[in-house]
Structure formats: structure tokens, C-alpha cells
Amino acid sequence: MKNYIVRVISEQANVIGLACVTTVLVNEACRLHGAYPTACTALGRALTGGTLMASLLKMGQRLALKFEGNGPLKKIIVEADYEGNIRGFVAVPEVDLPPSDENMIDRLIENIRKLPPYTQMLRSGQASESILESIFSGIPYVTLEKHELFYRCTCSRERIEKVLVSLGREELADMIEKQGKADVICEFCRKSYHLGRHELEALLDSLRDQSKP
Questions:
Q1: What confidence category does residue 211 fall into, taking pLDDT thresholds of 50, 70 and 90?
Q2: What is the pTM of this model?
Q3: To pair with 197 at 20 to 30 A between CA atoms, which of 51, 63, 107, 154?
Q4: Count of domains observed in the chain
């Protein structure tokens, strides 16, 4: 059986559908890493997810997925591109959960399959706690925490200056000569930072000082 992906698009509304077979490449990845069944399952799902997401890119583009936590697998990294080249690894491939844990995973998957579309649940006013209750149906659980979330950017003038310094002496000197200033807009919060000629020259001087023996 060959690995392959199929892309379709509706004749109306431009709805795209994706489906893929990754059995052979997943088995190859698991063989190369000596992955035990549980680690192999997790790595296989990550590889398949990366394959589907990369198929939405453009020619020549690629993506990387990183799953990291304090569980037994520690970390999974997957890289994939539009052309269908996929690779990945699991940090601790020798992980294999006992049968009871495997059964719980199967129960969770089945509960998720029974759920209505997520958007539909939100529109009906269903709270996140209620959705989790449905996902963990038949599985005892406790709530660990609940806290607020914020859209908060960590950009600062100091970070912008570090970015400019990372350009190097030649590029920074060229910027001073040709533009005499730098206007940087944070991609995350759209905050604008302006550095004039004197500020850029100070950054350039700091680079020169660092290069002195």
C-alpha cells in the first residue's frame, strides 16, 4: 500500500476536503525510532496531522509541529512540506501504556466522535466545562484549575533593539546611511516603534564595542 493524499474542492463555495493514507510512512518512522506501540500511535497521529496541514500550504513551503509536555513521551516534533515529504520523532519512543490506559484512550476517542460540531455547541451556549464533561463521559476526572486568558503581547523596545542588533554591523550601518531611522511594527499587537539616527548609531557603537578584544 502506498502513502498518498487526496485533495478535493467543491464546485461551489470553495470547500476543500483532504484525506490521506500514511500507514507505510508511519511504520517506517516507528521502525527507525524503535517506537513501542503507544509511542508509535502518538507519533503516527502527529505525522498524519502534519501531512494534512502541510497540504494546505503552497509549493515550496513547509511547517513544523511541536507537542511538548511533562507526560511520558516528553516531546514529538513533525516537519512536513507541500510536496509530501514528512519526518518526525518522539523523544521517548520506549513508552507503552498498560491496557487500561489504552482502553481509556479508545473511550475518549469514541466520546469525541459522538460530539456535535464544536461551533454548534458554542452557538447553543454550551460552556467549556460542559464540553469537557461530554468528552470525559464514563471516565472519572477532577478539575485541576480554571483561570482567565488574555491577549497580551510581550514585545518591548528592548526586544526591538535586540532584533536590530542581530542584523549585524554592516546592515545596521547601511540602514543609518540610507534611511537614518527604523520604524518597526510588531506583527502580534501592531504597536509601532520608532528609532532615530542617534539611537541606531548607539546600537552600532555597542556592536563595535563588543567586537573589540
A1: low
A2: 0.63
A3: 154
A4: 3
